[in-house]
Amino acid sequence: MSFGKSFERELGKNTGKWVSNVIFGDGHSTPYRRVGSTQHREPRRTQAELRHELESQRIAADGRNVNSPY
């Protein structure tokens, strides 16, 4: 099977799904969703940011223990 035939079949399949979604709505067929939509979620933190926060907490905890009477 050539690349052109595969491309035509995939294009037809995706177009058919889009038309079906428009006519029948998302409940009937495969819904169209955006993968990159992260407006309501907190952005992921990098490893460096997490390490920095942990190190800051450790330093703050050590500072409190230095002046401890025990």
Can you characterise this structure?
With 70 residues, the protein is mainly α. The protein is built from two helices and no strands. It has helices spanning 3-24, 47-66. The longest helix is centred in the first third of the chain and has 22 residues, at 3-24. The mean pLDDT is 78.
Rg: 27 Å
Note the run of SSEs as H and E: HH
Shape: elongated
Helix count from the secondary structure assignment? 2
Specify the biggest β-sheet. Answer: none
| CA distance, first residue to last residue | 79 Å
Structural class: mainly alpha
Give the number of DSSP strands. Answer: 0
Q: Helix share of residues?
A: 55-70%
- Please report which band the strand proportion falls in: under 5%, 5-15%, 15-25%, 25-35%, 35-45% or over 45%: under 5%
Contiguous runs where pLDDT drops below 50 for at least 5 residues: none
Mean pLDDT: 78
Topology at a glance:
Layout: H1 3-24, H2 47-66
Write out key terms for the chains shown.
70 residues, single chain, 2 helices, mainly alpha, elongated
What is this structure, in a nutshell?
By secondary structure, this protein is mainly alpha-helical. 60% of the residues lie in helices and 0% in strands.
